[in-house]
Amino acid sequence: MTYRNTVWVRYTWDLRKIAQLPETPAGYHIRLGRPDDERVIVSVVLEAYASDPAWQPLMKGIEERMTERIHSTLGMPDVDYIVVEHQGKIVAVSGIAKSHWTGQNLLTGICVLSDHQRKGLGKHLLGLSLLRLRDFDLKKAKVYTEAGSLADKKIYPLYGSTKEYDVEYPGLRKQSRSISEGKMNMIARIWHGLTLASKGDEYFEYLKKTGLKDYRSIPGNEGVYVLRRVKDGKAEFLLISFWRSNSAIKKFAGDDYEKARYYLEDKEYLLELEPNVVHYEILEKL
Q1: What Cα–Cα distance (Å) separates residue 26 from each residue in 85, 94, 183, 218?
Q2: Fewer CB within 10 Å, N- or C-terminus of the chain?
Q3: For the whole model, what pTM was predicted?
Q4: How far, in Å, CA of 140 to CA of 172, rounded?
Q5: Cα(260)–Cα(47) distance, rounded to whole angstroms?
Q6: CATH, domain range 3-175
């Protein structure tokens, strides 16, 4: 099943009208998520979605989308992941952002493990999320969900929200675009390296075990072209990798992502470790 038949609803809150929340439900502890929580946060989010019959037929796409979204935003400026712990384990998550390309501020939705639902956690977590977004100097907050989901029925109508039915979900438009389509919103990262021609094949095998392998492991990477030209006893390599966002690139290259990333044995192959890469916005592919 695909998203093609999904009916989307949009909820909007006036953050200026959000009142103070009641105390945290007994036995639970609230904190902000850290980058080293990523694996557990992804697991909790996916398990919470899978517990809702409305989302179950779409879990393959949800897994890809949420894994990439969490990976590319956790730890970024103006993004928070509010986690709820019970006996030292994370049992609920809400990822929020001041802005996001999907047109919403609740990145993950309100995700509570099934054993901890119907205990007031969802309501409390939504309220905390809205108050935190107000701390980001926002006046309005938005989220999209499937009509008939548990969040649509039980959670998002809270705190004075307004609901719009059968709307277009902006995140779906961008998600449907790929490197093979015409108009895109992607970034090309271009790295150049030079080896002796006699080491060209060996270096290519080394690339497949290092940089190319790591590219594929990063959610938000959309593939790579590996180009080689042999001339005058040298093998020139050009790697053109494709990315959904600068945030995704930073997961590979670090915060100073204009710098080239090298591996331990690169110096044994490359004639020079060129310090920088270049990035281009992809406007169109014909």
Answers
A1: 11, 19, 51, 38
A2: C
A3: 0.64
A4: 22
A5: 37
A6: 3.40.630.30
Reported as a pLDDT band with limits 50, 70 and 90, residue 93 is very high
DSSP-assigned states of every residue in 227-284: EEEEETTEEEEEEEEEES-HHHHHHHH-SSTTB----TTHHHHBS----B-EEEEEEE
Asked whether the CA dihedral 13, 15, 20, 25 is positive or negative, the reply is: positive
Confidence (pLDDT) at 3:
57
| Beta bridge pairs of residue 95 | 81
Amino acid at 49: Y
- Spatial neighbors of 19 by CB under 8 A, at least 6 apart, are none
**Pair of tokens at residue 192:** 């150049």
pLDDT of the residue at 4 = 58
Q: In this structure, what token pair is assigned to residue 270?
A: 């490359």
The pLDDT tens digits for 148-175 are 999 999 999 999 999 999 998 887 765 4
The verdict on domain 183-284 having CATH code 3.30.70.100 is: yes
| C-beta of residue 92 within 8 angstroms of C-beta of residue 121 | yes
Alpha carbons 75 and 96: distance in angstroms, whole number: 11
Instruction: Please give the DSSP secondary-structure letter assigned to residue 90.
Output: E
What span, in angstroms and rounded, lies between the C-alpha atoms of 83 and 241? 34
Which pLDDT does position 173 carry in this prediction?
A: 62
Report domain extents, the chain: 3-175, 183-284
First to last CA, the chain: 30
What ranges in 121-242 are assigned the alpha helix state H?
121-135, 150, 170-175, 200-209, 211-217
Answer whether 3-175 and 183-284 agree in fold.
no
What is the per-residue pLDDT for 219? 78
Distance separating alpha carbons of residues 132 and 70, to the nearest angstrom: 18
pLDDT, one tens digit per residue, over 263-286 is 999 999 999 999 999 999 888 766
DSSP element (H, E) containing 12:
strand 8-14
